[in-house]
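As the next step, I wrote out a protein sequence along with its fold in token form, included below for the reader:
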Amino acid sequence: MTVTVDAGVQLRKLLNTLAANGLALPHTTDWDGLSMAEVISTAAHGSSLWRKGGGIHDHVVGISIVIPAPAEQGYAKLILLTEKDEEIRAARVSLGVLGAISQVTFAVEKMFKRSISLKLKNESDLENSFVKFAESHEFGEMYWYPSFYGMLQSIQDRLPVESPGNGKRSEIDFRPATVQSVVQNRVVEELNDEKINAINLCKSVKTQVEQGVKEGNGYLNDGRSFYGFPVIGYNHLMQSSSGCQIDPRSEEHGMCPWEGKELKSNDTICGWDTQVKGNFYYHTSIVIPLSRIAEAIKDMKQIRDTDPTALCTIDSNLGVQFRYFKKSNDYLSHKEDSVVVEFIYFRYRELGTPRWNGHAMDEIEQMLLQKYGGVPHWGKNRVYTFEGAAKRTVNLGKFLKVKKQFDPEGYFSSEWSDGVLGIGKGVEVWQDGCALDGLCVCKEDRHCAPEKGFVCRAGNIWKKARVCTKVNADLSIIAKFSK
């Protein structure tokens, strides 16, 4: 009940191959265009506290790594690690600094089906529902929409493979999109942000979320259409979604099928493809202990209440997502059962451009990191969030010992990775406007944009936060929205 896969193989190819043999990898990422080395090296995850938990790396039982070696050994050698080797606890979440991963062996299960239902309700019981929800549903996730005081429960349970249903997840953000549509959508986003019509944005978000749930939020009962919850389907088709990374001319799952080729307006790409000016966001994902999530939610609600309009942009991008992460023994993983707090929000392409609502997101980020001992997802987040993060993992000291053993000269390290691991000069970048782009936590007004009225001040609720706030801001819009 194991599968060995080359490190560069894409997740979707592995899932399809397993399914053809009646097998399943129980937890995967939402997007299936990642390579298997990427998936484990950054501690990518699903959502669960059951069994081994939702961390994909916790299902790894073997790894092959190519590491540097002296000349008499040909300058490189292959290390084979199994669960019997202590070093595998470093290799499963390695950030790529131990060597070049060659192959990964996963423990797999017999294929099963997953049942998914979405339930939209008032936020009143949000902070008190996390533990019970995790105990009741093996793969459950929750979403919070702070601007309209709503919460969405994604109820996900395991069913026998014989259960009726041929459902599929087809997340709109992962579908192929034409170059023209991606560019146009971004233009609209920029215009909306410049106009700052927060009240209209907040009102439209509620309608958008309600309509999305009514239409299935990308879940299809028969693989083609949605006609009601629950949606039941084979596991490999119900958690991960794909399509945009496939070259339509060859149907190959290439990471960048159009790279080096001239793009035309009707060519299809992933919305975030850097070859065009399409999607461009900040993506916060911070892991905090499950034991403290209720307290954290109460604090986040207080931040919301100081300016309800400021978080509308989060709600227009899936809201605040909560997923479960079981404690792990891997050195750069998490010491106790945790909740991943995740949200996406608008980002300007021009460095040093202030966002009218940036103070709220910055205060939440800093509070989760400072007050609640949060650890950033290794594959996401802004630069400053990684400062000192590795010290809050299971055992940084033992990880660094294995790193020195495998790559003593640091061939697989960089100034950035050393900073993340706390053995370099740090990760924050100090320059004018650095706080506006998540390069630093502001200490002086020049780290914001004083010439545009944005200065460095304490947070509204978490007073230890330092955020870029617009002085003499018009508070009438907040009062109007609150009424």
In short: The first helix runs from residue 11 to 20.
